[in-house]
Amino acid sequence: MVKIALVSCGTEYSGIQKEIEKAALTFGAEIILPEIDLDYIEEAYEKFGFSAQSSSLKLMIARAVSIVEGRCKPDAVFVASCFRCAEAALVRNEIRRYLQDNTRIPVVTYSFTERTKADELFIRMEALATTVTRRSILAREKQEGLTLGLDSGSTTTKAVLMENNKVIGTGWTLTKDIMESVNKAADEAFESSGYGWNDIDGIGTTGYGRLTIGKKLNAELVQEELSVNAKGAVYLAGHQKGEATVLDIGGMDNKVITVNDGIPDNFTMGGICAGASGRFLDMTSRRLDVDITELGPLAVKGNYRRAQLNSYCIVFGIQDLVTTLAAGGSKEDVAAAACHSVSEQVYEQQLQEIDIREPLIQVGGTSLITGLVEAVSETLGGIDVIVPEYSQHIGAVGSALLVSGMGNRNQQ
Known about the structure:
Elements: E1 2-9, H1 16-26, E2 29-32, H2 38-48, H3 55-68, E3 76-82, H4 86-102, E4 107-112, H5 118-133, H6 135-138, E5 146-152, E6 156-163, E7 166-174, H7 178-190, E8 202-207, H8 210-217, E9 221-222, H9 225-237, E10 243-249, E11 254-260, E12 263-270, H10 278-287, H11 292-301, H12 314-326, H13 331-349, E13 360-363, H14 370-379, E14 385-386, H15 394-403
Parallel strand pairs: 1-2, 1-3, 3-4, 4-12, 5-8, 8-9, 10-13, 13-14
Antiparallel strand pairs: 5-6, 6-7, 10-11, 11-12
Helix pairs in contact: 1-5, 2-3, 3-4, 9-15, 10-12, 10-13, 11-13, 11-14, 12-13, 13-14
């Protein structure tokens, strides 16, 4: 059983502790608490060198130090604190950095509320368990045979057909009925390849609908999108060796993943409001009466400083854009402002919780919005952002790649 060390403040005194344990157990993992004595708490706290007033935070720090010093030997670490506490947020980030600098253990950080349920933690626990139990599969650098990758996202469904390390077919459709959308995307991927369902050596699924699809199609690989997207990104960008950061701004939530030699070692996901997601950009394009594919080039021509947004809320953000247009603002400036608003929110809500390692690889459908890619680069001080070919199919590519290491269904 995968052992996940819980390094946290406040979980023991709220219902969140049981929810964390429930989420871990779902994926064959066990939550453990590093055992330490009272004398060690002060000793470890002094070694850590970060001032904290709360005794609970000192205990949290001591547990992290015990992991680095080998007193506790988990397979992964879940670092959590209450979203209401600013001091805890600082300690949480320092502990995450400390663990990453001194171990090779995968880490995930999480800011919980008193209403957090196991369902909200599942993908994080699944990703931690996957990183530990499927490390050899995640280390795979080459696709072999004929495999189909399916990504059932919240907004769109993608399919990718790969043969001997090359993408030979892709499909894309809006997500409506899960299986109908999958069949439509897959048929599009098969269309010009000359192959059909019976020719496939393996099927890999990811995304929100992965469990349903995996069961219906008897897929060899059913895996959460954090590890799959990370693998697909470094594969397509040609950065499977060394470090990288993967950014996926999605239709409902965002993912930021740090990768070392193709293996995810830290990630964060979510967001406070849809104003920090692709949904806001979709609504902006509709308000401007342009196709979403036109929003990026439009934004590149604009100046976001002439139409700044003052709200994180998707509703009030659209109101700001309407006000700007009514005052004579240009579509170009509004498009640029929308892209910068999303970029800045992603930075404030998520990118600050990660030590960004270059190169930054931006993937997902929103990576095709050039104005957003430029905004991300500017927000991060002008760093280069890589958008690889097939970036919008990243989950499907990762699934097709990883499932090729799991055997040939036609020989079973």
